[in-house]
């Protein structure tokens, strides 16, 4: 890890110290006290050598782990049942009906059905959206559903109680190949002398990194080693952009060139997120780093916690991500791993929502860097290396990482941290991943241009502050709903607009008592069944006035 000049100096010091102690103990120290003192020094030096070897071993182990990208991704398909329904095992579902969502996961659904059919007999009903799927489960239209665990985050956001209300009674695990080759642009970068950009993508999952999930946070880190400048550019998770599918075979139906929330790109692999960002920002991303919830929690705990400063008006009494945790107060706060994660994820407590969340993420990263650079790190090195080895994966080679470390030890540069967060306007638009309409953020075109220019400025050896942050808040990208989709929801009581054609007037669309169909009467809103018999409009009259 050390540059050559420091490596030679360290070796010389070790040899000289060893030689002095050897000569002193064997030829000079004759009296008991002097011999005892020299023996003690020899033991102390041996302990130092042992600690040094331990640090070297843990560091090499960490590098091997984070740079050894697996060429396989794990796919887990679950059979989910409703708690208290009596279907508490796969065998109990024999001759029952399972709900599927084949349009989103054709390969995984079929593999799960093949696995199930070798054990029991089931019927299936296919649905279009996750809302449809879970509503059918809750209303006993189906006795179980087939769910790719990749979509677990989507389900949680749709219904935070879903995980508590359901149980997994069977899982099918299979593996798909992941492309691990590096591109030619990355290969040409000398990270010790040339500027480069890294995508840090945070997945909304726990545990290992061998499965895909939504990219809950995305940050570009642009580094110029010549000017000692680091620019952090945060992108809102709900940015509504054209998805550029990568080379990873996830088995899912990736919506190439269709607009979707950026967070959904992570479901199709980190390279999909990378290519999507490159496309709409018109930049080149040289490397990526992938982390998840467990990564941050374990790293912060290994550091003994971090200290963050909360500005006036940004105190949080309780974190929405976990109500069991204490929030943060104005001023300095010491956070353990769980609270640091909750602080980095919080958005509902802030007026600025996702914009403040990305600022919090930048605060957490800077706090971690400060803790790593502190003297306390010496005693926590082993624990931190252990946490780091399972915390992230990257396509930057170990030689490139070591090159950066050697550069740091050679010049000890005073890094200047700069930051920028893209902004936009919240809206509702069709998500091909959900097969339904979702809350999205339409990009502010000025903000996108500013982000591009700031990144380019750092790459060109300038400060990002040389680019003005001034934008027109009304310059929002106009998106035409080219899908013109009719949402085929079954009309839950919890969603009065399910089933609506969003191109039509809400006031003339009503539901029948049959939750699977609705009919329109533009004159007075009366609702009729297929045979022409009048049916009371219970949704409109009793609960929902459209």
Structure description:
The chain has 546 residues and is an alpha+beta fold. Helix content is 36%, strand content 24%. Strands 16-11-6-7-8-17 form a six-stranded mixed sheet, sandwiched between helices. Strand 18 (424-431) and strand 19 (436-443) form a beta hairpin. Helix 2 runs parallel beside helix 13 and helix 11 runs antiparallel to helix 12. The longest helix is centred in the N-terminal third of the chain and has 35 residues, at 32-66. The protein is globular and about 90 Å long.
Considering the chains and any ligands shown, give keywords for the structure.
single chain; alpha+beta; 16 helices; 23 strands; globular; disordered C terminus
Question: What topology does this entry show?
Answer:
Layout: H1 4-28, H2 32-66, E1 72-82, E2 96-100, H3 106-117, E3 122-126, H4 130-138, E4 144-148, H5 152-158, H6 162-165, E5 166-177, H7 184-187, E6 196-203, E7 215-224, E8 229-235, E9 240-242, E10 259-261, H8 262-265, H9 270-281, E11 287-292, H10 293-302, E12 306-310, E13 316-319, E14 322-328, E15 331-335, H11 337-345, H12 354-372, H13 377-389, E16 392-394, H14 398-411, E17 416-421, E18 424-431, E19 436-443, H15 445-459, E20 509-511, E21 518-520, E22 527-528, E23 534-535, H16 538-543
Parallel strand pairs: 2-3, 2-4, 6-11, 8-17
Antiparallel strand pairs: 1-4, 1-5, 6-7, 7-8, 9-10, 11-16, 12-15, 13-14, 18-19, 20-21, 22-23
Helix pairs in contact: 1-2, 2-13, 10-11, 10-13, 11-12
